[in-house]
Amino acid sequence: MLTFIRTAAAPFAAVTCNITPGFTALFGPSGAGKTHLLEQIAGLRPLPAHSRLHFGHENWCNLPCDKRSIGLVFQHGELFPHLNVIENICFAWRFKATCMTQAELKTMLCALGIPSQWHQLPIQKLSGGQRQRVAIARALYSKPKLLLLDEAVSALDSQAKHQVYQALKDYQKQQQACVLFISHIADEVAQFADQVILIDQHGRVSESANVFEVFSQLDNHIATSQNAGSVLQAKVSGVLQDYPLSTLEISQQTLICPLIEAPVNDIIRIRIAARDVSISIEKPLNTSILNILRVTIERIDTDNETCVLLRLTLGEQYLLARITHKSLHDLALKEGQEVYAQVKSVALMG
Predict the structure, then answer these.
(1) Where do the domains of the chain lie?
(2) How much is the pLDDT for 121?
(3) 20 to 30 A Cα–Cα from 192, which one of 82, 114, 228, 232?
(4) How far apart are the C-alpha atoms of 75 and 155, rounded to whole Å?
(5) What pTM did the predictor assign?
């Protein structure tokens, strides 16, 4: 586990965070100091006096960056221009004793989608997405226990991004590594993070919790943005006969979603946007909306002048809904009331 306590030093606020094995997202507005924080953890920038930085039993405060078990990847995939692809990837063998074997390297390159045809290419011939894959491969090659990713997949399309994250997940499980990544895309955080650290515009940690808790709150900057929506876990229960649709079980209720290739009883992650949830006080009949769930209004937030945000209990999980003030008034909704949530779409999180 990484323990990081940074004292305040203008213009940056004090920060305290604990990074456990798994994927932790650092999420917040541009200019909040997220990259600066990663660089301090990596040892590329000095820490203010009386700060603490421990990884496991090691004190990293005065440890040179090359002595830390870290892999660092920046947004633009900085690579050595005088080396070709495979020379960049295997650069660490010169000074690291923990590098991958040839078999491990081959498996890792295949998982990241780096074919042998790229190996001898000069860096200048690579696209932005190709550079990012190579930079990630170089970071993994030395088997770091802490991986720091600063928008490291931003140049990839959604399919390639999913492939790379799956490779990173496999690596994390094998090495029990801590992965700290910066992203400005809420859906990316919802899909891949286990823990989320929210940074406000002043660089302070406003919330630190598991991804399900963070996306179910009504008072953080995710909830107040257009990205508001809940992240839930559901169990694959089957396939609808004659239709390319799968069924999921959540809190002893059924959700219908696009067909997925996952075994029955697998637990998957889904995301439901607050704007895609409407409320009815009676069970709707003769509707084209397939997913109608019994829920209880746990909290009503009317702070926003343009809309109302509801937090709905669904068993032990939460669903968010965004409605108008007029709907709140016309339906006379109250906290503790049982209602029906009509879910227009369900996003599968891989």
Answers:
(1) 2-214, 229-348
(2) 96
(3) 114
(4) 8
(5) 0.92
The answer to whether 165 and 15 have CB atoms below 8 angstroms apart is no
Q: Which of 246, 225, 229 is closest to 237 using CA atoms?
A: 246
CA distances from 329 to 71, 219, 230, 302, 324 (A): 53, 22, 24, 11, 9
Whole-angstrom distance, CA of residue 5 vs CA of residue 21? 18
Nearest to 6 by CA among 196, 180, 206, 205: 205
- Dihedral, CA atoms, 149, 155, 159, 165, nearest 10 degrees? -10
CATH of 229-348, one of 1.10.150.120, 2.40.50.100, 1.10.10.10, 3.40.50.300: 2.40.50.100
What six digits make up the tokens of 226?
A: 């257009």
d(CA 96, CA 68): 11
pLDDT of residue 350: 65
Would you give the distance in Å from CA 60 to the centre of its chain? 26
Low-confidence ranges of the chain (pLDDT < 50): none
Sheet of strand 245-250, all strands in order from the earlier edge strand to the far edge: 253-258, 245-250, 229-239, 267-273, 347-348
Cβ contact 108:100 at 8 Å = yes
Residue that has been written with the tokens 């305290």 in this structure: 16
Residue of 150, 113, 117, 116 lying closest to 133 (CA atoms): 113
Distance separating alpha carbons of residues 342 and 350, to the nearest angstrom: 23
